[in-house]
Known about the structure:
Elements: H1 4-21, E1 33-39, E2 45-56, E3 59-68, H2 76-86, E4 92-98, H3 104-112, E5 116-121, E6 139-146, E7 151-159, H4 161-167, E8 186-189, E9 194-197, H5 198-208, E10 214-220, E11 225-228, E12 233-245, E13 249-256, E14 261-267, E15 272-277, E16 281-284
Parallel strand pairs: 3-4, 4-5
Antiparallel strand pairs: 1-2, 2-3, 5-14, 6-13, 7-12, 8-9, 8-11, 10-12, 11-12, 14-15, 15-16
Amino acid sequence: MSSGRDYEIFVQNLQQALLDSEEFLKHKNIEIERNKKIADNFGILREFDLYWEYELAGVSYKTIIECKDYASKVSVEKIDALIGKIRDIPDLKPVFATKVGYQSGAEAKATNNKIDLLIVREQNESDWYDKDGTPLLKYMNVDIQAQLPVRIIGFHPMIDGHWVKANTDIDITKPLGFESMSNEVFINDLLKNDKFSIHELENRLRNEYRGKYGQHSLNYPCENAYIETPEYSLKLHSLSFEFHVPKPHSIPFTIDLSKELIGVIEYLNKDRKTAIFRENIVRSW
């Protein structure tokens, strides 16, 4: 962060994500304003770094945050200055934010004047440990198992020659070309009232042979089954096929949660920290 303006935007983004994550506030579409000018009781405009308001049960709640991008702890004089700015503006909730911390006199003065003190900063190594020193989850090792499709590698229909002679004038001594039109070949099992394509058969085999990797062969019962194409519908004498069930493809990767952590808010009055991650994910401890 190179300037006070950058720090204001940093605090604004974290606080906006926090508001958007609050269950009873996220439907109110609260927008945080920067450099908000508010007239006090004497008509004097006072400017505040950040400001937002919302209404709940007919009552308006107004909050301001003064942001100070200091390399050292905030002094009591800075707290006094904020007290002076808000003295003649009723119903404001004052909050102070800085990166490093506050002098003891500043903390006492803020507490006595009901000013919430925040340390809003980027992450450090301490944020990956609980209060009792227990390490928090920082890395997630994920292994995605991609189930590859089953493939039929041999398809052998045998036509019922007696049925063909009795019902058609097709010369079954010549190739019928099933192999070249596999996308249009269907098995119609009238006994089971079941009709399926070769592609559908592969999907069924994937479910039935899950975990049974390697090559397999099957004989399909053909009591009253037909092979159908756009040109033919022929009674089957028998049907056998070979198929291959491939092993799943493993895709391991590691999620580094520290790269998803945008910043941390420490609440000095409450001895609590909140971490703001991308996608408005919030974790407090």
